[in-house]
Amino acid sequence: MSDNDGKKTLGLGTGPRSGQVKQSFSHGRTKNVVVETKRKRVVVPKPGGTGQAAAGSPIKGDPSKRPAGISDAELERRMKALKLAKAQEAEDAARRAEEEKQRAEERERRRADIEAKEREEKEREEKAKARAEEEERKKREAELAAARAAAPAPAPEADAPRPAAKAAPAVRKDREREDNRRDNNTRGKGNRDDGRRSGKLTLNQALAGGEGGRQRSMAAMKRKQERARQKAMGGAVDREKVVRDVQLPETIVVQELANRMAERVADVVKALMTNGIMATQNQSIDADTAELIIEEFGHKVVRVSDSDVEDVIQQIEDKDEDLQPRPPVITVMGHVDHGKTSLLDAIRNAKVVSGEAGGITQHIGAYQVEQGGQKLTFLDTPGHAAFTSMRARGAQVTDIVVLVVAADDAVMPQTIEAINHAKAANVPMIVAINKIDRPDANPDKVRTDLLQHEIIVEKLSGDVQDVEVSAIKGTGLDQLLEAIALQAEILELKANPDRAAMGAVIEAQLDVGRGPVATVLVQNGTLRKGDIFVVGEQWGKVRALIDDKGERVDEAGPSVPVEVLGLNGTPEAGDVLNVVDTEAQAREIAEYREKAAKDKRAAAGAATTLEQLMANAKADESVSELPIVVKADVQGSAEAIVQAMEKIGNDEVRVRVLHFGVGAITESDIGLAEASGAPVFGFNVRANASARNTANQKGVEIRYYSVIYDLVDDVKAAASGLLAAEVRENFIGYAEIREVFKVSNVGKVAGCLVTEGVARRSAGVRLLRDNVVIHEGTLKTLKRFKDEVPEVQSGQECGMAFENYEDIRAGDVIEIFEREEVERTLS
């Protein structure tokens, strides 16, 4: 047997109770856990302890209100702590009340001190003002007495007050009031007149640069010191107004206007509001409004214009002692295929013609040739009709024009145009009669044809030199060069090489490896490597100079053609190149010119009134457009193509050049062409790989050309396809109505006799009554006896019924016709 025999162990009954709890887990797992529950021991006082406490005990507890398990000693200790806490709380309340009373007294004392100081300051200012007024009155009386004692002559103008000072007091008084307000605010806040910081310096105050707000400016501090000095001297003396010359452009920002006048922005804005203009410091005002404000503040206005940026380009007259002889510039002009380039090749001993596509010149070329120790500069211009502007540019920059006329072709349209360009440029002319080696050459016919255009050659007792030459055989070249040298000697051409260079752009292109390249003919001065220049809407710094032989040179003097590298963009052919001092000047001039050109284009394309806008829209409704994108190798070719495109079309169709430029065809060109459904034409250029891939994906057509004839012909053919076909009517027969029958399910049927031609079922018909057309339409049925037939010959009878028309009578005539569409082409 065990010690307990399964019976529970006896205990005090205060220990923990044990038991088991069954815990359940996932997947069906369980676990028995033994838990113990502790019971709280409750102390019950003994019956003897409920009586009165000992007589020496200072605290007596009520057994009925005492918590269970609390002894007398514990209760006494707790009661003492409670009494001490109440006493401490009463002392704290009394101390707080005393401190609040002291603070209120301190505030009253400070307020009284501030009011007393303000009263003293106000009294002092009033006394100073009264004293100043008294002194001013005495001085005025003394001056009046002296003026009365003197002769009654008018006072000199020097004693009159300056008009500029009249506008100043109001602004100055506003400033003084503002500064006084700040002084009062500062004194009220810190009760300090020295402006020193009080209290702790926080991080925010240190970073903000002041004590929580906007601080005084240096000008305000100086004004405060000046006023203090004046008060110490016993009077307020107004300072003299500083009158400034304010440069005023066409528009100016309010803040910039204030800076130029050295006035506060707030004063300028206030003056604008006084004049009824609500503008902030960041808004722009026009020149007239700004002029009123400047005059109100007492300053002088100096009007300037945006175009004044171009004043840095020196347009000075050279002195005679600075001028030195320069080579002549000779331009070769004439009709296409008259041998201009071949003649120049014979002089240069080069083969330029073989390098031109189609054997025609499509670029303007500049070359320099040395003849007998003298240099000659030649410009070769295209003769094709599309290159009119190129020939005009060549005539403008030249000294002598060599007019090439073929002896077997005589005077042609472009020959006449070249004569007109030479006359417009007022330059002397030398006639070179080329191709005299041809069997059918007739130089005399050339001379007589030129008489019609007021060109009288020396052989016909005129003053224009004429030379018979043959470019292939080399005949007469020496005589031509001698004639050019003689003409140049008569002109006495001189230039100053020791000044800033100025020249004209003959041609411009975008080279893949070198960037924008301009062929420039230097007209005056010397262009050197490193010069900063502006040309049209572009600017740059000369990175390299390449002559006509392809060699690099360090400088180019007057009448020397060179290729210039270092531009920021491709200039227009014909632009003038000017060397300036700084890069900032060049950039400013280029930006101004670009803005002016953009405004000009916008003004040209915009309708001035709503009526004009509606008229333009109505006019464009009936016009079909062929959009195209043009890219060329040089600026002159692109310009010539665009001019040729503008001439194609009529009232029904026209060609619209969406974009033209210089350089290879790029993805942006393909994107523009795709958006408008336009083809891309490349003249002596090709599309890069990415542009070709994009064009294939988007279905944009790219066409390449090297001869301008082919490009113009293709565009003309494409534009012709937009023309509506011309409709022509061919009369094929007449029929006379003999009798009218009424047939069920058909209506009225005309019994007719074909009197002329043939009647066809598919043809159109007109019903004539007394030779007046009363109906036009088509046939519903055409029968011969009871059979439906396609046509009825002349002299036969037939039955006809009209489609949707039954007002037919005997004796009416039916006119039978067919319509034919004829394609139209642009001439």
What's the short version?
The chain is α+β, with helices and mostly antiparallel strands and about 850 residues long.
Please state the CA-atom Rg, rounded to the nearest Å.
54 Å
- Biggest sheet strand line-up: 9-10-8-11-12-13
Query: How many extended strands?
Result: 35
Per DSSP, the total helix count is 19
User: Helical proportion?
Assistant: 25-40%
Overall 3D shape: extended
Computed structural class: alpha+beta
Distance between the termini: 139 Å
The average pLDDT value, as a whole number, equals 79
Oligomerization state: single chain
Sequence stretches where pLDDT stays below 50 over 5 or more residues: 9-13, 48-61, 151-168, 188-195, 350-355, 357-363, 383-387
Strand content: 25-35%
Major sheet? 6 strands, mixed
What do you see in this structure?
It is a single chain. The chain is an alpha+beta fold. It is 35% helix and 27% strand. A six-stranded mixed sheet has the order 9-10-8-11-12-13, sandwiched between helices. A six-stranded antiparallel barrel has the order 15-16-22-19-18-23. It has a six-stranded antiparallel barrel with strand order 28-29-34-31-30-35. A hairpin with a 2-residue loop joins strand 30 and strand 31. The protein starts with 16 loop residues before the first strand and ends in a 5-residue tail after the last strand. Residues 9-13, 48-61, 151-168, 188-195, 350-355, 357-363 and 383-387 have low confidence and may be disordered.
